[in-house]
Every structure is written in structure tokens, then in C-alpha cells.
Amino acid sequence: MSNIFSDAIVYSLNTAKQTEYDNILTEHVLLFQISGEMTFETSEQRIVAQPGQIYLVRKHQFVKATKKPTNGQEYNAYLFILKEDVLRQYALEKSITVPHSLQFGTKNILLSKSNMFDSLVSSLSFHSRDTLKIDHPLSVLKVREAIETVLLTNPRLENFLFDFSEPYKIDLEKFMLANYKFNVGMEHFATLTGRSLATFKRDFMKVFADTPGRWLLHNRLKEAHYQIQKNNKRPSTIFMEVGFESFAHFSNAFKSKYGYSPKSIAKPA
After folding, report:
1. Taking the complete model, does pTM exceed 0.90, yes or no?
2. Domain boundary, last residue among 121, 137, 161
3. Position 87 in a domain
4. H or E element: which one contains 264?
5. Long-range contacts, 149-152 (Cβ 8 Å, 24+)
6. Pair (176, 157) in one structural domain
7. 3-state secondary structure string across 213-253
8. Whole-angstrom Cα distance, residue 208 to residue 109?
9. Separation of alpha carbons 169 and 74, rounded Å
10. Beta bridge partners of 36
């Protein structure tokens, strides 16, 4: 389960079984891994956050996340959502300006441990133990404290945190080939390619000579078929990896396209 202190701080606790989900990050996230593992995959990187590690994860990217208990311990983690309005206010007060966009820079950064980070997490333990809700003013103060701690321990991350540029129009073919396996809404594909939904659909047809929905279905099924037949992946696990919501939908679509079920080509375990 997750205890949401506010819309800015999330505490995932008592997760006793593995959970998976796809998401689009619209804000920077500061992750404190307490116990268990958080695996997050983007189009460029696969990271496994171990207990005690701290990651700063950049906004404007798709993430396939897996929460997993390990070594007999349940999954626990804190997520600070570094919202743009809070970052802008902080930058204004501190007279911070970023000269240019760094969207092609490092997107996921492992931060070094420090006593300051330990103190920040410890200050939230009272609320997590008693499952109290942090009201908005206090949550903003805690997020500002997180920002301050990141900058004091890593001054060079100023450009990372305060880059307020929006996604700009990028190569549609390259982006879709790298990100088609993420199970997110069409509007999110449009946003991260720097387009309105209408422009995205129009440009998509020009590039691929097909609609986004049909193209995504075709490529996800093609990848699933390859992974099952060539890499011995199980149909019951591959459907989520390639972007399907449910196994039933995946199985029906697979059989409709190939004329046989995914289980019929899977090798015995």
C-alpha cells in the first residue's frame, strides 16, 4: 500500500508482494529506497534501487516501475515529488536561473549518502509510523528541505532541478521505436514528442502510414511473439513488459493476429 502524505510526498509501505506499473513522470522525483528494491526502466536505462540508495529521477520520461520485497523484508520507500511550482518559487527566492535546456543530459542520478539526507528521512518517520497526513504547507516545507539538501550536497545539480523547458518537437520515429512498450495514454506520447494530440496523430500517419493504435498493437505483438519464441519468455509475464493492460486482451489480440495462442508457442517450463 501507499500512504500519501500529500500530493508532494508518497510513502510506499508494507508492500509484501511484487507490483508493476507504467507511468509518465511529469515532475522530478527524489527516491529514498528504505527496504526492498525499486526497478525502474526507461527507454535508455534500467536501474535497480537498493536499500539505502537515493535517486534523483528526471521528469518528461516514461518509466516502467517494479516494487519488489527482498530478503524477507517488505518494500518501503519515500518519494518526494518535486513539483515545478515549488521549484520555480525556490528559484525566484534564491535568484537561480538556468541558461539553457539540459533535456539530453543525465536523466537518472544516484546521489551520495549524507547525514543531511538521513535527517530528512528521519523527520518523516514519525508521520509514517502513525500514518498521519502531512498538510499542504508542511509538505511544501519538507519538499523545499529536500531541494535544499540536494543542492547543498550536489551544487552542480542546480541546472538539473531548475530546467523548466518543455519537451520540444523531436524525431517521432526514433522516439516511438524506443518507447512503444510503455503502457500509457496516447496523449502522453504526444506530450513527450512535443506535439498536441491532433498533431501527433497527423505526424504519426505521415511517418508510419498507420494510426498510432494499430501501429502500437502490431509492434507490441511482434515483440511478444519474438520474446516467447526466441527468448523463452512466459506469456504470463511478457504481456506487461510489452505494454498490455491485461493477459486476456493480450491473448485475444495475439490469437487474432497470428491464428494461434501465445501459450501454443511457449516452451514447457
Report:
1. no
2. 161
3. yes
4. none
5. 149/114, 149/116, 149/117, 149/120, 150/30, 150/56, 150/111, 152/116
6. no
7. HHHHHHHHHHHHHHHHHHHCCCHHHHHHHCCCCCHHHHHHH
8. 34
9. 42
10. none
Cell digits of residue 191:
506530450
The three three-digit cell numbers of residue 18, written as one number: 511484487
Query: DSSP alpha helices (H): ranges in 47-114?
Result: 84-94
pLDDT tens profile 30-45: 999 999 999 999 988 9
Count of CB atoms within 10 A of residue 30's CB?
23
Q: Which of 7, 3, 12, 5 is nearest to 32 (CA)?
A: 12
Q: How far apart are CA 127 and CA 5, in angstroms?
A: 8
Residue 189 domain boundaries:
172-265
Any idea which residue has 536501474 for its cell? Answer: 47
User: Which H/E stretch holds residue 169?
Assistant: none
Contacts of 20 (CB under 8 A, 6+ apart): 64, 65, 66, 67, 240
Which cell is 16 given?
Answer: 509484501
**Which residue intervals of 13-135 are DSSP H helices?**
84-94, 115-130
- Give the CATH number for residue 186: 1.10.10.60
Three cell numbers at 92? 525566484
Q: List pLDDT tens digits, range 89-125.
A: 999 899 988 766 555 467 899 999 999 999 998 887 7
